[in-house]
Specification:
Strand order of the largest sheet: 1-2-3
CATH topology: Calcium-transporting ATPase, cytoplasmic domain N
CATH class: Alpha Beta
Mean pLDDT: 82
Low-confidence stretches: none
Strand content: 15-25%
CATH superfamily: Calcium-transporting ATPase, cytoplasmic domain N
Number of domains: 1
Helix content: 25-40%
Length: 92
Amino acid sequence: MVLDKTGTLTLGNPEVVAIHARPGVTERELLEAAATAERLSEHPVAKAILKRAVELHCAILEPSRFGRFPGKGVVRTADGDEIVVGSPAPTG
């Protein structure tokens, strides 16, 4: 999933306009994982991901573990899976 910051600068309201999943992962699976990871976040990009997931009636799980790395991203554990959203290697 790639989000462009242009909307943030001009409109102050980022939105998900396209989702590009790697082979073997559907766009819906990627959006559901990202929405689950961002579920507890107040970041504008997180809100855009969650809004799109709700619009598409995606399953959004309650994360059991929540790690926040300012300026880098978030790490969540949900249903036994670790989900990382953000810059490369947000925990390092």
